[in-house]
From TrEMBL:
NCBIfam families hit by this protein: dctM
Signal sequence, start to end: none
UniProt similarity note: Belongs to the TRAP transporter large permease family.
Organism: Loktanella gaetbuli
Free-text function comment from the UniProt entry: Part of the tripartite ATP-independent periplasmic (TRAP) transport system.
Name of the protein in question: TRAP transporter large permease protein
Transmembrane domains' residue ranges: 7-40, 68-87, 152-179, 185-210, 230-251, 257-275, 296-321, 333-361, 373-400, 420-441
Subunit structure: The complex comprises the extracytoplasmic solute receptor protein and the two transmembrane proteins.
Keyword Cell membrane: yes
Keyword set, alphabetical order: Cell inner membrane, Cell membrane, Membrane, Transmembrane, Transmembrane helix, Transport
Amino acid sequence: MDGSIIGICAFAAVIGLLAIRVPIAFALAAIGTIGTFVIFATRTGAFTPDRAVRPTTSLVFSNSFDLIHSYDLSMIPLFIALGHIAYRADITTRIYDAARVWLARVPGGVAMASVVGCGGFSAITGSSIACASTMGRICSPEMLRMGYDKSLATASVAAGGTLGSLIPPSVLFIIYGIFTETSISSLFLAGILPGILSLLGFLLTIFIWVKRKPSAAPAFTGVITGRDKWLAAVGAWPALALFGLIVGGIYGGFFTATEAAAICVAAAILIGFAQRKLTLTDLWESLRETCIQTSAIFLIAAAAKIFVAFIALTGVAPVIVNGVSDAQLSPVVLLAAIALIYLVLGMFLDPIGIMVLTLPLMVPLVESYGFNLIWFGVVVIKLLEIGLITPPVGLNVFVISNVVGKAVPIDRIFSGITRFLAIDVLVLILIMSFPIISLLIPNSL
């Protein structure tokens, strides 16, 4: 049987398994293993299963083993641990507290502070869903209590939570870098300006929303003194220091992304104990949660590596590249088609699943057009970010819905999300049209 046909059938099988809610790791590993076995068994023309057992087991175990022992992969548990420790040490929430004080008199100031807080949380944790879950518990109930419009109080946090995909350190950037063999440090730096651009776009969305409908956000009636602003800004120094260590250390060439993660974990622990915000029980719970999340990500990554090796055996990627080349699609049409594929998949699948499922085909395709893989990584992550708030399965929206419960129907959250989706699409177009937005900082190294 032709390898490309086996590869196409495998993709269809994976999508079918995901449609019936089979976990992504099991779907990828099962189809990758079975597909590899079929290829080796039919290599001589006749079906000889006895000749396929040894090469199949060798390929499956060697690929998964090599991935798990990857040096770059070690930064995932470190950054996840950093997020949990920083939250329990009250480091991440202080950015929200500071932003709330400084933006108190701005229309929709608390909603804006929620977005800024999400950006600050993202700059330490690297996880969009964790950001939405944590900040949702803090911000949304408070805005609802203050009389904010229900759509604004929930949608602003759901959209702000997506910033964890772009603002470094991002777990998605780490996985993309490992599977495409691109510099993770460069990917981190490439995500800074697009992340800031997205954050500013969200703030502008809230400002316009409240200006057009003042009743959506009650006006601030309290008193904020200069001393209050100063104390709030000083209180946020641990989070700023950790972000500065990550970005400044990588940009300055003082240490790698993995070393930055390890240093920041140690720094967060020291700051937490020094300020008496972190206990041994908190530290233990942080490490326990880190192990659970890391195990899930590693299981998906190992299964994806098996599937990627299988796809390489099928030769389906060169077939697709040649087909696109023969069709003579323009770069603009190609990028539009890729964006459409990711946006559609984002309506139904989680970001990691989408990435490991599509990268084996997308990377050879974009390389054949001469696109920069660092820039393309930012485009992919931005598309995955949009998928987190796109109906019908916007994961961040469901996270916020679980936080607020029956107080806000999920359709009210989605109705507010449409405003943020519009600005997300505009930012995506800018990133795709002007690669310098993503490449300016990495190219300055």
